[in-house]
Specification:
This protein is an alpha/beta fold. It is 43% helix and 14% strand. Strands 1-2-3-4-5-7-9-10 form an eight-stranded parallel beta barrel, surrounded by ten helices. Strands 6-8 form a two-stranded parallel ribbon. Bound molecules: zinc ion.
Length: 334
């Protein structure tokens, strides 16, 4: 078992001056793709998933299989993280399932999807931190509103994070990591042209990092949306409009400015979907989905390995001594 907390992995990243990719997974083949890439590049890694967004009907079944898959990679330091927990109850479910880290996204009301007040965000975040920290589990919060769609169901406007609020938020909640809205956006449609400093406010990262030096900064919506993957998808029945994401060099630069966790879902999902569509199209007699899923897994693993080099986490598992996290469900707490 190599399950680690987010705090532990990101502290190592800060000491080493590198960033750690947090890759969204919605199926077990994708978990394998991430962990294979981490093993191949000798990277500490964060595997993250959004409740209700997997191919499984049951979160609990999926989460159990996800954690069991991690057991097959004893050589890889892995954080299993809940991405965008909409409320305290969902975070508690993930902690009970054995996750070593959760995100409580108190920036939006879970029912209306409208921005909450600063005090409402603090109240729910502090509630999750108290529960999680008592069990050795790390917590990420969110300040400001990161734009776009997290799960395809909602579409939020961007509200940039405020450095003064960030300092107060951390002081009052005790979060280990903070997602800061700096202009990035979730989903497969981000920017209508290559983003510049009027879109991506990298200066905000520096300002906020100075105010909360003990808290890790998280960049959400960091996919690049590679054009060649969009072309493969569109050549096989897709119709993704042209869109620009976050350039690779900006992601690498963010790790030098104070970002230690880089969330990336869409790039690896595009790689998976492109390879799967191409594989299905190449065999008109295909009835078993496994060969197409296998092609998707391999393509996803490839792009993730490339990102691990860009973020700087490749090779960092070599000098990593994990303090194994044991979930409360397993009977002990690290
Ligand atoms: Zn996000």
């Amino acid at each position: 078992m190599t399950l680690c907390t987010l705090r532990e992995v990101l502290d190592h990243a800060r000491r080493g001056g590198y960033g750690v990719g947090a890759f969204n997974v919605t199926d077990i083949e994708q978990v394998e793709a991430v962990l294979d890439a981490a093993r191949r590049t000798q990277s500490p890694v964060i595997v993250q998933t959004i409740a209700g967004a997997s191919a499984f009907a049951s979160d609990e079944l999926y989460w159990d299989l996800l954690l069991r898959t991690v057991d097959h990679y004893p050589d890889v330091p892995v954080v299993v993280h809940l991405d965008h927990g909409p409320d305290a109850e969902t975070c508690l479910r993930a902690i009970e399932a054995g996750f070593s880290s959760v995100m409580i996204d108190g920036s939006l009301d879970p029912v209306t999807h409208q921005p909450t007040t600063f005090d409402e965000n603090i109240a729910v975040t502090r509630q999750v931190v108290e529960y999680a920290h008592a069990r050795g589990v790390s917590v990420e919060g969110e300040l400001g509103t990161i734009g776009g769609s997290k799960d395809g169901a909602t579409h939020a406007e961007i509200i940039l994070a405020d450095p003064d609020e960030a300092a107060e938020f951390v002081a009052r909640t005790g979060v280990d990591a903070l997602a800061v809205a700096i202009g990035t956006s979730h989903g497969a449609y981000k920017f209508t042209s290559p983003p510049d400093s009027t879109v991506l406010h990298m200066d905000l990262i520096v300002e906020i990092a100075e105010r909360i030096p003990d808290t890790h900064l998280v960049m959400h919506g960091s996919s690049s949306l590679p054009a060649h993957l969009r072309e493969i998808i569109n050549a096989h029945g897709g119709n993704l409009p042209e869109s620009w994401g976050v350039p690779e060099d900006e992601k690498a630069r963010s790790t030098k400015l104070g970002v230690t966790k880089i969330n990336q879902g869409m790039d690896s999902h595009m790689a998976y979907a492109a390879a799967m569509r191409a594989a299905l199209a190449s065999d008109p007699l295909a009835a078993d989905p496994a060969p197409a899923a296998s092609a998707g897994r391999a393509a996803m693993s490839e792009i993730i390995a490339e990102r691990m080099e860009v973020f700087g986490q490749a090779g960092r598992a070599r000098d990593y001594t994990a303090t194994a996290f044991r979930s409360p469900a397993a009977g002990t707490i690290a």
